Amino acid sequence: MPGLGIRPSVESYSIGLTACAKGGRWQEALVLLREMEEDDEIKLDVVAYSAAITACANGGRWQEAVAILSDMPNVGVRPNVISCNAAIKAWGEAGQWQHALSILRGMSKAGLSPDAISYNTAISALGVAGQSEQAQELMSEMSRLGIEPTVVTYNSAIAAIARGGGGQWRQAVALVKHMSLAGVTPDSITYNSLIVACGKGGQWKQALSVLKGMKKQGLSCDIIGYSAAISACGEAGQWEYSVGLLAEAKSLGITPDLVAYTAAVTACADANQRDKATFLLKEMLSAGIRPDAAAFTSLIAALGHDGQWTQAVEILESMPKMGAPRNAMVYNALITSWANAEVAKGEEEGGALLLGGASGVGAGAATGAAGDDNASAAQSRSIAAQPSSAEEVGAQQPPLAGFNTNLSSDQQADSR
């Protein structure tokens, strides 16, 4: 505008800053804000600062967001609810949940009334950090203040439980039930987090029941929910259902991602189903997905459990051409494999080989993906031969929404 002989007004800057906020264009927002500060004829207002804070928060620049909020009183601009909410978001996304709570508490002291967005953003910060108790305390506080929780509120609290300890899964189920009683409709995000919580609590049957309940309600099942269910079954030693869920997702047109495949590979490897785990690794490559170190670590550990030292080394050596990094966890699994093999001869040579290779961890791995053309017949068996649906197990549990949360003691024992 100055190049056209037109002097920008406060409104012009505010519009530009708002556009930057929506796109997370924090650098441009800071430039505009500094221009306003340097123009003696422009009166700075809270709208401009709030938009700049939001731009930094949406751009993942929490340091800049907090610096702007701290600087506002120095220029005579009083923060409002919007600017504080943006700062809470910035702190939360940086994993600094204590600071996010500090801003929330400071709002009341500054004479500001936190709104639903303030609480939702703070609860979301607690959810990311797995601070489930504090998240639920904030929900209770909202009710005391007459602020109605939204689906975002509930989802954030359930996510906090899901990231916390496995013993809290009943609290997640109770929150979903409370949502319905409060007239708040659960969505796919709600149920995906609930599946994770059930899985961490060893309730794999309950996790499958949630997945089945989503279908009955016509909710969209995505790979996030399937990945969570695959992990829940795998952690309970139910590798057949993990593989079956992977196949089921593909049959529904849901494309498995790295998380889903890794969960299935880990489930098979942990159950000593090495051929199936190897097959899934190759299937990942065929699908254009490069396995990460976690999948290989599980497979190498499984080989080590059976003393298959040679095969474990072959898996390690195949990682670079599959584009997977070889980190300390992989070498630790391989060292365990070597120990379990109880090699009678060449122990020193083997140990030196391992330690020498491990010293190069972090140097990087070659990229590219190339399959092993010498797959055995066992490795080539189709996963379609495995159970391909969770319906049988899901039918044993009442679908969780309506959702019957009163599991009998026998059902709880069976779910572990």
UniProtKB/TrEMBL annotation:
<feature type="repeat" description="PPR">
    <location>
        <begin position="9"/>
        <end position="43"/>
    </location>
</feature>
<feature type="compositionally biased region" description="Polar residues">
    <location>
        <begin position="403"/>
        <end position="416"/>
    </location>
</feature>
<protein>
    <recommendedName>
        <fullName>Pentacotripeptide-repeat region of PRORP domain-containing protein</fullName>
    </recommendedName>
</protein>
<feature type="repeat" description="PPR">
    <location>
        <begin position="187"/>
        <end position="221"/>
    </location>
</feature>
<feature type="repeat" description="PPR">
    <location>
        <begin position="222"/>
        <end position="256"/>
    </location>
</feature>
<dbReference type="Pfam" id="PF13812">
    <property type="entry name" value="PPR_3"/>
</dbReference>
<feature type="compositionally biased region" description="Low complexity">
    <location>
        <begin position="366"/>
        <end position="390"/>
    </location>
</feature>
<feature type="repeat" description="PPR">
    <location>
        <begin position="45"/>
        <end position="79"/>
    </location>
</feature>
<keyword id="KW-0677">Repeat</keyword>
<feature type="repeat" description="PPR">
    <location>
        <begin position="292"/>
        <end position="326"/>
    </location>
</feature>
<feature type="repeat" description="PPR">
    <location>
        <begin position="115"/>
        <end position="149"/>
    </location>
</feature>
<dbReference type="InterPro" id="IPR002885">
    <property type="entry name" value="PPR_rpt"/>
</dbReference>
<feature type="repeat" description="PPR">
    <location>
        <begin position="257"/>
        <end position="291"/>
    </location>
</feature>
<dbReference type="Pfam" id="PF13041">
    <property type="entry name" value="PPR_2"/>
</dbReference>
<dbReference type="InterPro" id="IPR011990">
    <property type="entry name" value="TPR-like_helical_dom_sf"/>
</dbReference>
<feature type="region of interest" description="Disordered">
    <location>
        <begin position="366"/>
        <end position="416"/>
    </location>
</feature>
<feature type="repeat" description="PPR">
    <location>
        <begin position="80"/>
        <end position="114"/>
    </location>
</feature>
<feature type="repeat" description="PPR">
    <location>
        <begin position="150"/>
        <end position="186"/>
    </location>
</feature>
